[in-house]
Amino acid sequence: MRLAFMGSPDFAVPALRALHGAGHAIAAVYCQPPKPAHRGQRETRCAVHVAAEALGLPVRTPARLRRDEAEHAAFAALDLDAAVVAAYGLILPKPMLDAPRRGCLNIHASLLPRWRGAAPIQAAILAGDDRTGVTIMRMDEGLDTGPMLLAEAVPIGPETTASTLHDTLAALGARLILRALAENPPAVPQPDEGVTYAPKLTREDGRIDWSRDAAAIDRQVRALNPWPGTHTRHGEEVLKVLDAAPLPERTEAPPGTVLEAGRVACGGGTVLRLTRLQRAGRAPQEIDAFLRGYPLAPGDRLG
């Protein structure tokens, strides 16, 4: 089948490799343009760009699409059976949505219509969902509103992080898109009930509010690992909270109060144990090693 692939981050790479490995003719790979990154702000290609070049595939990196009629015409000239889209980062205008014979198929990391939008993996963990999954959807002009072709669920456990869930769903998406192309299942409209949205995350989403209960803060730590990460302030120092665990014990100490052995009082009398921390400019440390070298003492306040 003659395809275009449109994606940018690590999440999209397994699907690109699976399509190429299955023998589909990938006429072009679209991804975000190189951007300044790392120390020195060097121009850096996204993960899909790197993977496509390693596979010998032609890469296009338009900065915008909405009003670029030349880009619309170039896309139509590819004479595609379908386009596969996975976390591309640009909105496809109607002329491009309509160009492939079987449309543009999106690999979305949730069980639609739950968690439409930019950060569905993190949103599912933050909300305490016990499962999520991947939906293959035929795209329309709405935000993740198109009809569904396939979906498959995976569990979210008490130790699931966004990082581990990302990798599970990326592999699942690669498998499901191959099925969707091979089987051409009928498209089913999304239900009107149960629609939720997962907005784009910011660094401020990572600030810990100790007035929330320990279970909610634990979900925040797991959901925002690795980005934007969770953090708290101890005096003038900002501490990254990399891992934590809610405890069954109760306390009457005010939220944010440091207890013994790296435990912290949270909202509702609950307690969270910090298990791995990082200071600015330092390496991550397990809590016992951290406390040997940093004065985080019982009675101190975090905020």
What is the secondary structure topology, with strand pairs?
Blueprint: E1 2-7, H1 13-21, E2 25-30, E3 35-37, E4 42-44, H2 47-54, E5 59-60, H3 69-77, E6 82-86, H4 94-98, E7 104-108, E8 116-117, H5 120-126, E9 131-138, E10 148-155, H6 162-183, E11 197-198, H7 214-223, E12 230-234, E13 237-247, E14 263-265, E15 271-279, E16 285-286, H8 287-293
Parallel strand pairs: 1-2, 1-6, 2-5, 6-7, 8-11
Antiparallel strand pairs: 3-4, 7-9, 9-10, 12-13, 13-15, 14-15, 15-16
Helix pairs in contact: 1-6, 5-7
Describe it:
By secondary structure, the protein is of the alpha/beta class. It folds into 2 domains: about 1-195, Rossmann fold; about 205-295, Methionyl-tRNA Fmet Formyltransferase, Chain A, domain 2 (Roll), CATH 3.10.25. It contains 8 helices and 16 strands. The protein has helices spanning about 15-20, 45-55, 70-75, 95-100, 120-125, 160-185, 215-225, 285-295; strands at about 1-5, 25-30, 35, 40-45, 60, 80-85, 105-110, 115, 130-140, 150-155, 195-200, 230-235, 235-245, 265, 270-280, 285. The strands form 4 sheets. Strands 5-2-1-6-7-9-10 form a 7-stranded mixed β-sheet. Strands 12, 13, 14, 15 and 16 form a 5-stranded antiparallel β-sheet that branches. A hairpin with a 2-residue loop joins β12 (about 230-235) and β13. α1 runs parallel beside α6 (about 160-185). It starts with a strand and ends in a 10-residue tail after the last helix.
Strand tally, please? 16
The structural domain count equals 2
Shape label: elongated
Write the element-wise H/E pattern from the N-terminal end onward: EHEEEHEHEHEEHEEHEHEEEEEH
Which CATH class of the largest domain applies here? Alpha Beta
- According to CATH, the fold-level topology of the largest domain is Rossmann fold
Low-confidence stretches: none
Which homologous superfamily in CATH is the superfamily of the largest domain?
Answer: Formyl transferase, N-terminal domain
Fraction of helical residues: 25-40%
Architecture per CATH nomenclature, i.e. the level-2 architecture of the largest domain: 3-Layer(aba) Sandwich
Largest sheet: 7 strands, mixed
Q: What is the residue-averaged pLDDT?
A: 97
Class computed from helices, strands and strand pairing: alpha/beta
Strand order of the largest sheet: 5-2-1-6-7-9-10
* Cα-atom radius of gyration: 22 Å
Beta-strand portion reads 25-35%
